[in-house]
Amino acid sequence: MATHSDLEELKSLRAAAQRSYTKNLLTSEIEKIEAEFHRRAAQPQDAPVAPRLVAAPSRTRTKIDLYGWGQSDRFLNLYISDKLRDLKGANLPAENVTSTFTARSCLLEIKDLNGRDYFFTLPNLCEEIVSEECNHKVKSDSVVLNLRKKKAKEWVCVTATEKALKEKKKQEEDEETEKSLKSDDPQAPLMGLMKKMYSEGDDDMKRTISKAWFESQQKKNDMGADAHMGMLG
């Protein structure tokens, strides 16, 4: 396909030609090239083809509910391992695991772990934390969220909902204990106290109280049986 440079060169050759035959040949070629230029100019220009956008495949987003926790004077530690057993071999980029904190909440997001996205969130912590001093640590099969406590004290639970339920339960137990103290039944105060101790005690305390309660009931039943036999005799 001839170009404008070719056309100009042919015109230069025609101007320099001495013989009529040569000039006629060059003129004929020049006219053919000019006609081709006019034809191409008259054709509509093809619209530019827009690049085809390929939508990224959507990934399933799964919520993680289970977690463990522990604490020190300064930090509350949340251990998230549910559904994360594949972390060890996934070799996720660091930017695929992110954490966000506010004064009363935390959010962990894990992206593209074997084609899935995961998230864990607690939106209502029972105490305040220092968000800018919180962080996360990725391990082979889990992620640990380290929450910096605003006040160095022991947390009785993790969420405000749990705290409210504990306080409600304690209030009900206190009311029951107070009611038993005012009862005419001489055993009522002792029973109320034992229930309170059982509710608030550790596992050893609960086993001790359960054993004492069982032995007391057995003794009461044995005494009742002896009295019944005495009446029959």
TrEMBL record:
One Pfam family named in its UniProt record: Siah-Interact_N
GO MF terms held by the record: S100 protein binding; tubulin binding; ubiquitin protein ligase binding
Keyword Acetylation among record annotations: yes
Region entry Disordered, spans: 166-194
Subcellular location: Cytoplasm; Nucleus
Coiled-coil regions listed: none
UniProt entry tagged with the keyword Disulfide bond: no
Basic and acidic residues composition-biased segments: 166-185
SGS domain mapped to chain residues: 144-233
Gene3D superfamilies assigned to the protein according to its UniProt record, in alphabetical order: 2.60.40.790
Domain of life: Eukaryota
Domain CS stretches: 62-159
Keywords: Acetylation, Cytoplasm, Nucleus, Phosphoprotein, Ubl conjugation pathway
GO CC terms: cytoplasm; nucleus
Main location: cytoplasm
PANTHER family assigned to the protein according to its UniProt record, in alphabetical order: CALCYCLIN-BINDING PROTEIN, CALICYLIN BINDING PROTEIN
Chain's role: May be involved in calcium-dependent ubiquitination and subsequent proteasomal degradation of target proteins. Probably serves as a molecular bridge in ubiquitin E3 complexes. Participates in the ubiquitin-mediated degradation of beta-catenin (CTNNB1).
Protein name, per record: Calcyclin-binding protein
Organism expressing this protein natively: Hypsibius exemplaris
